[in-house]
């Protein structure tokens, strides 16, 4: 690998590591140690604080999960261990487009404004539509309860192109 192409990969890896460390420290700060292992600990959220999301996968399967208001759609997929291949490869650092989702029109119209950085990453996404956004940039709101989002048929993931070239 040429040195010039290794630099962006190293920067992405460093950013992902920082994101993991920050996420872990936030989790530790929000929970007491006894909550991790105590079976009778009260639920953190009531059903009123949760938002249900229905993901339509590449295969047409419907996966339903819940997240709390303020969680990103990437958080929902990861926290619920949803089986969506390659989803969120950069862990929400806006360094890929693997969390590309397609929204229904009535939901898309209510989403927060898109940033230039997200637009740049969406330019790399396959199957881009007028209602495409990155799941890592969309935070749940109560008004999104029971929304349906579609995972595109194909995902742009650098790991796939590397694996394709390997000999069995």
Automatic annotation (TrEMBL):
Organism of origin is: Eublepharis macularius
Gene Ontology cellular component annotations, sorted alphabetically = mitochondrial matrix
Please state where this protein is localized: Mitochondrion matrix
Homology family: Belongs to the adrenodoxin/putidaredoxin family.
**What GO MF annotations does this protein's record show?**
2 iron, 2 sulfur cluster binding; electron transfer activity; metal ion binding
Alphabetical keyword list? 2Fe-2S, Cholesterol metabolism, Electron transport, Iron, Iron-sulfur, Lipid metabolism, Metal-binding, Mitochondrion, Steroid metabolism, Steroidogenesis, Sterol metabolism, Transport
What is the protein name for this chain? Answer: Adrenal ferredoxin
Question: Which Gene Ontology BP annotations are present?
Answer: cholesterol metabolic process; P450-containing electron transport chain; steroid biosynthetic process
Q: Which cofactor does it need?
A: [2Fe-2S] cluster
Q: Which is an annotated Pfam family here?
A: Fer2
Primary gene name: FDX1
Instruction: Cite the PROSITE patterns for this sequence.
Output: 2FE2S_FER_2 (PS51085), ADX (PS00814)
Q: Which stretches make up the 2Fe-2S ferredoxin-type domain?
A: 51-155
> What is the superkingdom listed in this entry's lineage?
Eukaryota
Entries under PANTHER family matching the protein? ADRENODOXIN, MITOCHONDRIAL, FERREDOXIN/ADRENODOXIN
């Amino acid at each position: 690998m040429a040195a010039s192409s290794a630099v962006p990969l190293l920067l992405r890896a460093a950013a992902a590591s920082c994101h993991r460390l920050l996420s872990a420290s936030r989790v530790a700060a929000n929970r007491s140690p006894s909550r991790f292992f105590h079976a009778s600990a009260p639920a953190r959220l009531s059903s009123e604080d949760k938002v249900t999301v229905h993901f339509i996968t590449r295969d047409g399967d419907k996966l339903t999960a819940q997240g709390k208001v303020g969680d990103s759609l990437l958080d929902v997929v990861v926290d619920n261990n949803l089986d969506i291949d390659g989803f969120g490869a950069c862990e929400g650092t806006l360094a890929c487009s693997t969390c590309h989702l397609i929204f229904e029109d009535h939901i898309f119209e209510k989403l927060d404004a898109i940033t230039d950085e997200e637009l740049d990453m969406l330019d790399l996404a396959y199957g881009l539509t007028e209602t495409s956004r990155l799941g890592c940039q969309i935070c749940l709101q109560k008004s999104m309860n029971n929304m349906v989002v579609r995972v595109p048929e194909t995902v742009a993931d650098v790991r796939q192109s590397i694996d394709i070239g390997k000999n069995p």
